[in-house]
Amino acid sequence: MRYKKSKSLVTIPERFLTQRNRLFSFVGTSLLSITGWKVSGQIPDMKKLLVVLAPHTSNWDFVYGMALILSLKIKIYWLGKHSIFKKGVTRLLKSLGGIPVNREDAKNTINDVLEIAKREGGILIGLSPEGTRKKAEKWKSGFLRIAKSMECPILLVAIDYPSKEISFRELFHPTGDNQRDIEYLKKYYKDFIGKIPEYF
User: CA–CA separation, 89 vs 166, rounded Å?
Assistant: First the structure.
């Protein structure tokens, strides 16, 4: 098992590393450095892994998340609301792993993810479990259905604004009881503060 250590204290399996334009990597690293963000933790060496990042309370989460992807040169697919894939940036976002999601057609999204995993022999895919940056009293269970369909655990990633840290933390294995799992995860992420705390 070979790992490559990044400059940001994150351990990434070689299977999830990719070659990327040096300018992109420079931009991502510079943005995190200038704004004072640090990244820590480890990504397990598994063929299929669902990554969830929370709490998601601001558009800035997307900005820092993309900076992280560029900085780490990590090959990850991510699910984003179809409305952000606007004319002029769609090709760029897709080249960086973006998969547009129409909430009215969630079944096709899961099929798309499974097709990529089958084609590439595995997949690292990320999303926000809340499904929105606004306050969501009830989380949707789509991310749990994706994990079940892929037969994989969930890597919990936290973004904490007071400490300015994005941390890759522990693996969560869904129990099959979606409501119970959601309540557990909501409680877990209460230890981390988003940019707009009242939205979580």
Answer: 25
> How far apart are the C-alpha atoms of 164 and 9, rounded to whole Å?
14
- Token pair, residue 20, equals 């990327």
The residue to which tokens 């009881």 are assigned? 177
- pLDDT confidence of residue 9: 65
- Please tell me the distance from the alpha carbon of residue 22 to that of residue 197, in angstroms, as a whole number: 35
Cα–Cα dist 152/48, whole Å:
6
When comparing pLDDT for 137 and 50, which is higher?
A: 50
Q: What pTM did the predictor assign?
A: 0.88
